[in-house]
Amino acid sequence: MPMNGIVPLRDPFVGRAGELAALCEAFDRAASGRTTMVAVVGEVGIGRSRLIAELLTSTGGRAGGSAIGPCLERVRTPFLPLIEVLRGVGLGGDVDRILPDDDIAASDPTNERLIRRYHDIARLLLGAQRGHPYVVAIEDAQWADAATIGLLEYLAIARLNGPLLILLTLQSDAIEPNGTFAAAHARMRSSGLMTIRLSALSHAEAGELIAASSPVLLPRATAERIKDLGEGHPLFIKELLRTAIDAGHDVLTQPAFSSIRSIVLGRFYELSDADQRVLHCASAVGRVFDPRLVAALLDRSLSDILAALRRARNLQLVREQPIRNSDAIAFTKALFCDIIYRELLNAEARTLHAKIAQALEDAPSRSASDLAYHWSAAGDAVKALRYNEIAADDAAVLAAYEDAARYYDEALRGVQNGTHAYAALAEKRAYAAYAAGVAERTDELFSDALNVYEALGDRSKVIRMQIFLSRQSWTDGETERGYQHALRAVELIGESDPTARDFALAMAASYAVHLGRTDEALDLVSRGGTTPDPDIEARRLDTLALVHARRGERVAAFEALGHAQAAADAVGDPDLVVRVYSNSADIATLFGAAADTLRWWEHAVASAQNGKYIGRMAYAALGHALALIGVGDLARAQELYTLAIGTGVTNAAVSMLAVSAGALLRAYGIRSGAPPLSEDEALGMAIRSGESLRIGQVGAALASAAIVEERLGDARTILSRAVEALDTAAFAEELLTLAGIFSETDVRRTARTMLEVLGRRVDNVLARAGYETLLALDRHGSARPAALRAVAARLHDLRRAQLEHFVTALAEGSVPKPLRHGSALTSREREIAGFVADGRSNRNIAEHLGISERTVEHHVSSLLSRLGLRSRLFITQDLLDSANS
């Protein structure tokens, strides 16, 4: 007989013993002081939240605190899930101190405040007593705002030490290619994120769940029908079970109850029309809502609303939500909220959103992001524009630049192009995208603002946009375009602002020298110098050092470098420091000063990290990694590569270095996460830049990797494209040496000629060593290996491990092979471990390798023992890379 309301079911834990063991092991790691992050991935209703609840039960009172931060699909206020988490673990009093920052201009296009805020939040979460970690869960992370995703990536990449376990729940499609969380998941996984994928329960497990959950004995046919309809999803199974008990067993034979939507609506329409209006109104507010707001919107008493919600609770449609405050109510599942909301007619929904927005406008603690969403859903373009811009400004104040860019995009939809208002918004949007590292659109956004300001005749804004476009163009690998933007800025400034003109001249000079136009660079430097600005002076001296280096003038180059470094350190701007010290490191490499190369790259990385400057940190880390690979320090290079990839910075300057370092590490048997571009794209980008340094770096790295991987045809193609693109040879010495050894005749001849010219300059020791290698290859008989061994010894002194390895192989008459580290695992174990890390089952591995499942099981057990693990779910690619290196 049907019951009044939904019968309460028992809540057993079924079928996830292995996954729970893995989570308990993660908890133990966190308790030992190692910050640990786990993603629990599965379809809606598969039991992600239930697994986390069981972990908290299993660990008893060992946690220092636990909290859940839900992500909302419709409104993505920056840091909202983290605010809820901090309050949930008793740190709510620190929220206001950490997040507001109204005294800082929102247009400051740096990431410093964002990283500082990440650090402050991390410090709070790591503050639990040792052995009693905070357990925080970010629910539905596929809907997280960009600032929250950035913080999660920071926590994964930084590899912090402290008692903290972070759990993410994600829908399966979010981490598939092109999924909303795919890129972030890949970067976090390369930095140690463990992923637990929940699959459907087996037929037997589904039967166990039904039997353990039901308070009454079910007929066998009914249980079988539930198993068939539930398809192994615990949520669906339990909802079907409730329906069968409440509405009668026969109802499950009707097609109307074959989906979760039908189940939810079946309960919803059991409510009276008045109660349905309450849930419709609540669904328009959002998954989590305040009953007092619903009462005000419907002009009904709070007691009436609470009574309606109590009846909805009895039908398992809503529940109390203690995360925000004791009065909050939430739909049981986000899916339930969406199903009920979609029953509204469009006109009904617009009317409700307008009433909600009006009510929120009068609230003392109103949220601009909430108002932007509701006014937009209400169809009020004017108010949606206003609040989207306010929400964007608020996000920028929080240094949540990617979220700010998203809100500015929304605001721009309501502004007429060509107006000053449009230009101002486009400029703000460009700054936000620039700061967020959204490189693929930043140039377009600055150009958009520039075009409008030019049409409006706003000269000062045009100059500002030209300068930013010049910087962005270099970052995008378009150095010639950056040069032209800087020259245009110089022209527009004229004599009106000497400081601005000197700055633009210094920028133009730096681009000229990178393009190999040393005479033009010197001319531009000589035209400046009218203002004693240390920032401008550092840039001028840096350019002079590069000019001297290209001319082979070691003493003059290092003297200019010393002054440039002193000026940059005095200014303290991480962007300037990284620029000067990275150029210093490249010059030191040119002149064979390997110790200085490493020291200066390390200084650049430290400066970027101390200044909390993400983009420059990624760039410096990758430059340092390439230098370390060059001297054979692969372990430290791998660490820096992983750090840089994990930042998520994808501009061309970083991406080219990432592909280069990644290719070399891969060639040495080290996998550390996928770079953001293909090798072909990276080489094309370097060639388009027109810079011999970039062409040399990328070309040499990709060719070296192809050679040691025995892909000589690919290596020759790479070398041919790169050498053909070179206008000047300085800073491409290693590329030219490889081309002189491994290329076809015409390319080899060109490379030899270019090296010979450079090699005559006594101070360019790298070019001389390369040219001597080619001369040694011309020798015959026993003189050839002897000459090659002499060059190899010289390369050893210069700490050029890669070239030394190649030349040594040539002296021995063998094919160059990659330098590999030893491993505690056998080759078969490494192979099987790779499959396990990719999430393959024992059966799948056995079929692939043509061995028995028992043999695979034996190898997996051995792996767990050697690696000190209890669960195969902890065998990740990151762990294997560490073990192999």
Notes on the protein architecture:
Mean pLDDT is 82; it is low at 101-111 and 818-823. Helix content is 65%, strand content 4%. By secondary structure, the chain is mostly helical. It contains 44 helices and 8 strands. Among the domains are: 17-197, Rossmann fold, CATH 3.40.50.300; 533-612, Serine Threonine Protein Phosphatase 5, Tetratricopeptide repeat (Alpha Horseshoe); 827-884, Orthogonal Bundle (Arc Repressor Mutant, subunit A), CATH 1.10.10. It is globular and about 95 Å long. The strands form 2 sheets. Strands 2-3-4-1-5 form a 5-stranded parallel β-sheet. α22 (459-475) runs parallel beside α24 (498-514), α24 runs antiparallel to α25 (518-527) and α33 packs antiparallel against α34.
Please tell me how large the radius of gyration is.
31 Å
Query: Strands of the biggest beta sheet: in what spatial order?
Result: 2-3-4-1-5
Q: What name is given to the CATH topology of one domain?
A: Rossmann fold
How can the largest sheet be summarized?
5 strands, parallel
Overall body shape: globular
CATH superfamily of one domain: P-loop containing nucleotide triphosphate hydrolases
Tally the helices: what do you get? Answer: 44
| Class inferred from helices and paired strands | mainly alpha
The CATH architecture of one domain would be 3-Layer(aba) Sandwich
Q: Distance N terminus to C terminus?
A: 66 Å
Helix content: 55-70%
Low-confidence stretches: 101-111, 818-823
CATH class (first level) name of one domain: Alpha Beta
Overall pLDDT metric: 82
- Into which percentage range does the β-strand content fall? under 5%
